[in-house]
Design brief:
single chain; about 325 residues; alpha+beta; Beta-Lactamase; Alpha-Beta Plaits; 2 domains; four-stranded antiparallel beta sheet; 10 strands; elongated
Amino acid sequence: MENPKKPQDEATRLKTLRALNILDTLPEERFDRLTRLAMRLFDVPIALVSLVDADRQWFKSSVGLSVDETPRDISFCGHAILGNDIFIIPDATKDKRFADNPLVLNDPNIRFYAGYPLKSQNGSKLGTLCILDQKARELNKGDQEALKDLASMVERELLSVQMATLDELTQISNRRGFMMLAEHCLNFCTRHETPTSLVYIDLDKFKMINDKFGHAEGDRALVAFTEQIKIAFRESDIFARLGGDEFSVLLTQATKKITEDILVRFQESLDRYNQESDCSYDLSFSYGIVEFNPEKHATVEALLEEGDLLMYDCKRQRANK
């Protein structure tokens, strides 16, 4: 048996998947109707909307299968998300990657598999729409196109979930998305006693940019500022636009000192951008750093409130210089 490899963008992929806050949620008709349609259209006993998590594949919609998830290391979908097109196994018993797979040798006795990767807006493959059969078979070109069409419908449903937690302008998490991700993260960090810090960031003089250069230029400034955050901070960090000109970043495995070092890198990145851009203004920021203390910060809101206060102290000090 061959275990599926991890995609090159695995950290980003998992962050994108978890930002949807869809894992382990109840079944929804909008997904179930598509798997039912796939089952009828292709005359298969099993159709799934499978989302590939770090160590498992979890089924947002499942027709013909009694379990909610299976380990990722034996999943067919783990292989499917490595490509850009339909992943087809006509007869798993004759494929050395799957012949001794428990899902082939035992229930549900998979023989045929076809899965199309479900892509998010940033290109990450979150999982698949897949069909399975307990007998070997082929999938002709017409059927392949039909499966792609159904998968695009699943992608649109996932996008509607994503847009509720995504900032439309900057394409990073909005406040709602950040609160969901941060709560999950802080619970984990509390259990494992992992050092964690939050940075509350405010883009300085944003009102002046809007007033002097117009709101379209203000939007461009927010997008550029976001891009510099993406460049400077780590791929594992959770960042969001909370609203207006305010941003937050949650850093795990990061003390206040580590966070300060990353902010130095952010400032250097912003300096380079200011030097190279043709804007009539510079991007600058004020910030507050809070080290997470589970005894002091009972909620994500408590952490944000302290960061907000520290950021305004920083802003006042800069204004008085």
